[in-house]
Automatic annotation (TrEMBL), chain A:
It comes from Candidatus Lucifugimonas marina. Its EC number is 6.3.5.3, 3.5.1.2. The gene is purQ. GO terms for molecular function: ATP binding; glutaminase activity; phosphoribosylformylglycinamidine synthase activity. It is found in: Cytoplasm. SMART domains: GATase_5 (SM01211). Pathway: Purine metabolism; IMP biosynthesis via de novo pathway; 5-amino-1-(5-phospho-D-ribosyl)imidazole from N(2)-formyl-N(1)-(5-phospho-D-ribosyl)glycinamide: step 1/2. The keyword Transmembrane does not apply. It catalyses: N(2)-formyl-N(1)-(5-phospho-beta-D-ribosyl)glycinamide + L-glutamine + ATP + H2O = 2-formamido-N(1)-(5-O-phospho-beta-D-ribosyl)acetamidine + L-glutamate + ADP + phosphate + H(+); L-glutamine + H2O = L-glutamate + NH4(+). This is Phosphoribosylformylglycinamidine synthase subunit PurQ. One of its GO terms (cellular component) is cytoplasm. SUPFAM superfamilies: Class I glutamine amidotransferase-like (SSF52317). It holds the Pfam family GATase_5.
Automatic annotation (TrEMBL), chain B:
Part of the FGAM synthase complex composed of 1 PurL, 1 PurQ and 2 PurS subunits. NCBIfam families: phosphoribosylformylglycinamidine synthase subunit PurS (TIGR00302), PRK05974.1 (NF004630). Its EC number is 6.3.5.3. Pathway: Purine metabolism; IMP biosynthesis via de novo pathway; 5-amino-1-(5-phospho-D-ribosyl)imidazole from N(2)-formyl-N(1)-(5-phospho-D-ribosyl)glycinamide: step 1/2. It catalyses: N(2)-formyl-N(1)-(5-phospho-beta-D-ribosyl)glycinamide + L-glutamine + ATP + H2O = 2-formamido-N(1)-(5-O-phospho-beta-D-ribosyl)acetamidine + L-glutamate + ADP + phosphate + H(+). This is Phosphoribosylformylglycinamidine synthase subunit PurS. It comes from Candidatus Lucifugimonas marina. Part of the phosphoribosylformylglycinamidine synthase complex involved in the purines biosynthetic pathway. Catalyzes the ATP-dependent conversion of formylglycinamide ribonucleotide (FGAR) and glutamine to yield formylglycinamidine ribonucleotide (FGAM) and glutamate. The FGAM synthase complex is composed of three subunits. PurQ produces an ammonia molecule by converting glutamine to glutamate. PurL transfers the ammonia molecule to FGAR to form FGAM in an ATP-dependent manner. It is found in: Cytoplasm. It holds the Pfam family PurS. Gene3D superfamilies: Phosphoribosylformylglycinamidine synthase subunit PurS (3.30.1280.10). One of its GO terms (biological process) is 'de novo' IMP biosynthetic process. One of its GO terms (molecular function) is ATP binding. Belongs to the PurS family.
Length: 233, 82
């Protein structure tokens, strides 16, 4: 299968993403420049981390209006799998492809740390090779990952199983103390109702080999590959 | 030509850690009268138009589309002829 990795001016995690899906997991992968509008040749789209357009105005706000995002919206509308990581998650929220918003971390600090993510839903195409309740050791690196939405939206997300990952300790306990950014209900990743668009703040592409501290991030890409390859066959 | 002065602020229900931190710092500077601070954004947008109602419609639309995020923010603006 072929991954398309979107590159905005200011994106910085596209090469790590390419390394994870191509170098480690052996799939085709190509970069897509933010002005491109043809996505038909891709089986999945990744919006990687970074600081698109310098994070001016609000993170993700300018990227949302780039030509490629119109194409990503059409791709998602047709059921195409899209995953937004860190800045990519922010772009998906600004675009309205996912609900809510990522605000400044409640302590106002930029945090670059390893986190443990409790898998809350293992029935998605992004988590099907994980087991509900298990933790994934994946780093985060952001100043604006404080997920917020109105009460009705949170209730809907929780009720539908759309909260995919929560910040937890290594044993899987979800506590206010372990919450690294103030996200409501320790939310680290969510999925849309249809199940084909996921956003997460931590970086699975930066946990692709044991050599760099762990390879739990591959769970997400492996799940995508398994599910997508099955539909291609 | 018109000058639009746009203020974007967080909705009252949205937590504002920047505002809280600024309020805390003002307290440390002995501004004991400070009750609270909310941080926001201010834009000056020059609009090349002679039609005030068209300029106003543009400002409203740019606030809704880009300058403010309706999930967490509200906006106000004033338009003056320059």
């Amino acid at each position: 299968m072929k991954f398309g990795i979107v590159v905005f001016p200011g994106t910085w995690s596209e090469k790590d993403t390419h390394h994870a899906v191509n170098g480690v997991l052996g799939q085709d992968a190509e970069y897509i420049w933010h002005g491109d509008e043809a996505l038909d040749q891709y089986d999945a789209i990744v919006l990687p981390g970074g600081f698109s357009y310098g994070d001016f105005l609000r993170c993700g706000a300018i990227a949302r209006f780039s030509p490629v995002m119109e194409a990503v919206r059409n791709f998602a509308d047709k059921g195409g799998p899209v995953v937004g990581i860190c800045n990519g998650f922010q772009v998906l929220c600004e675009s309205g492809l996912l609900p809510g918003v990522l605000m400044r971390n409640d302590h106002l600090e930029f945090r670059c740390i390893w986190t443990d993510l409790k898998v809350e839903n293992d029935t998605t195409m992004f988590t099907s090779t994980a087991t509900k309740g298990q933790t994934l050791h994946i780093p985060m690196s952001h100043g604006e990952g404080n997920y917020q939405a109105d009460e009705a939206t949170i209730e809907k997300l929780e009720g539908n199983g759309q909260v995919v990952f929560r910040y937890a300790d290594a044993a899987g306990n979800v506590t206010p103390e372990i919450n690294p950014n103030g996200s409501i209900n320790n939310i680290a990743g969510i999925i849309n109702e249809r199940g084909n668009v996921m956003g997460m703040m931590p970086h699975p592409e930066k946990a692709s080999e044991k050599l760099i501290g762990g390879d739990d991030g591959n769970v997400i890409f492996k799940s995508m590959i398994e599910n997508i390859v099955a539909t291609l066959a | 030509m018109f000058l639009a002065k746009v203020h974007v602020s967080l909705k009252p229900t949205v937590n504002d850690p920047q505002g809280l931190t600024i309020a805390h710092a003002l307290g440390r500077l002995d501004f004991d009268s400070v009750d609270s601070v909310r941080a926001g954004k201010y834009f000056e947008v020059k609009i090349d138009s002679t039609d005030q109602s068209a300029a106003e419609a543009d400002v409203k639309s740019m606030c809704e589309k880009l300058l403010a995020n309706p999930v967490i923010e509200t906006f106000t603006y004033e338009l003056e002829s320059i």
